[in-house]
């Protein structure tokens, strides 16, 4: 077990604000111009930025670093988060659909985290799964632009689903901040 004083020193690539992930001018999440108009566009913008943040937190790490667990007994890792969010994206489509539920991507409960092993093939597959599931959920929701519409067997409001998506990514980006800082000392924003 690593001792507390064996932890990496905190660092940032940012030069303007040293506690930020990237300088404001270099941050791909920053855009020029006005913020989006309307509730749906605003929710989609936040979701896009949190998705990008998760990827940024994982950039430049080896499979071993991506699969590094947080603290016992937790099974959480950056790779596990990528796999988990792919699984969650698939499940959100089950909320929208009146059909039989889609099967889990990784099998049994917690397999998204338990199967996050330090192998390049697992890392590559996780990113493919995440991109595919995000695109499929986005496409399914594109047919429901009315945030007040109720969808699926349980009649969930599209607004509730969109807010839940933003919340899920935001929460896990917070986890990713701490995981990344433990791996190499890089601070997040």
Summarize the structure in words.
The chain is mostly helical and 189 residues long. Helices cover 52% and strands 2% of the residues. The protein contains 6 helices and 2 strands, in the order αααααββα. A hairpin with a 4-residue loop joins strand 1 (150-151) and strand 2. Helix 3 (78-96) runs parallel beside helix 5 and helix 3 runs antiparallel to helix 6. It starts with 38 loop residues before the first helix and ends in a 5-residue tail after the last helix. The mean pLDDT is 89.
Q: What is the average of the pLDDT values?
A: 89
Describe the sheet with the most strands.
Answer: 2 strands, antiparallel
Number of helices: 6
CATH architecture: Up-down Bundle
Instruction: Say which CATH homologous superfamily is assigned.
Output: dinb family like domain
Give the CATH topology. Answer: Four Helix Bundle (Hemerythrin (Met), subunit A)
Q: What spatial form do the alpha-carbon principal axes imply?
A: flat
Total beta-strand segments = 2
Top CATH class: Mainly Alpha
Distance between the termini: 28 Å
Structural class: mainly alpha
Strand order of the largest sheet: 1-2
Taking all Cα atoms into account, the compactness measure Rg is 18 Å
Helical coverage, percent range:
40-55%
Q: Flag low-confidence runs.
A: none
Tell me the β content: under 5%
What's the short story on this structure?
The chain is an all-alpha fold and 189 residues long.
Strand and helix map with partners:
Elements: H1 39-58, H2 63-67, H3 78-96, H4 111-114, H5 120-142, E1 150-151, E2 156-157, H6 158-184
Antiparallel strand pairs: 1-2
Helix pairs in contact: 1-6, 3-5, 3-6
Organism: Streptomyces caeni
Region (Disordered): 1-39
InterPro entries: DinB/YfiT-like (IPR034660), MST-like (IPR007061)
């Amino acid at each position: 077990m690593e001792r507390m004083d064996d932890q990496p020193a905190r660092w940032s690539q940012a030069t303007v604000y040293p506690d930020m992930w990237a300088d404001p001018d270099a941050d791909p999440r920053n855009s020029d111009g006005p913020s989006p108009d309307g509730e749906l566009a605003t929710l989609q913008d936040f979701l896009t930025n949190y998705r990008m943040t998760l990827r940024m937190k994982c950039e430049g790490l080896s499979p071993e670093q991506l699969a590094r667990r947080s603290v016992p007994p937790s099974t959480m890792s950056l790779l596990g988060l990528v796999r988990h969010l792919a699984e969650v994206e698939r499940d959100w489509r089950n909320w929208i659909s009146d059909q039989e539920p889609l099967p889990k991507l990784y099998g049994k409960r917690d397999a998204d985290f338990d199967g996050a092993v330090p192998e390049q093939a697992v890392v590559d597959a996780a990113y493919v799964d995440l991109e595919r599931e995000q695109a499929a959920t986005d496409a399914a929701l594109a047919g429901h632009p009315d945030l007040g519409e109720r969808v699926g067997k349980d009649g969930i409001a599209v607004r509730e689903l969109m807010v839940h998506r933003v919340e899920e990514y935001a929460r896990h980006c917070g986890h990713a901040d701490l995981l990344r800082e433990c791996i190499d000392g890089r601070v997040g924003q």
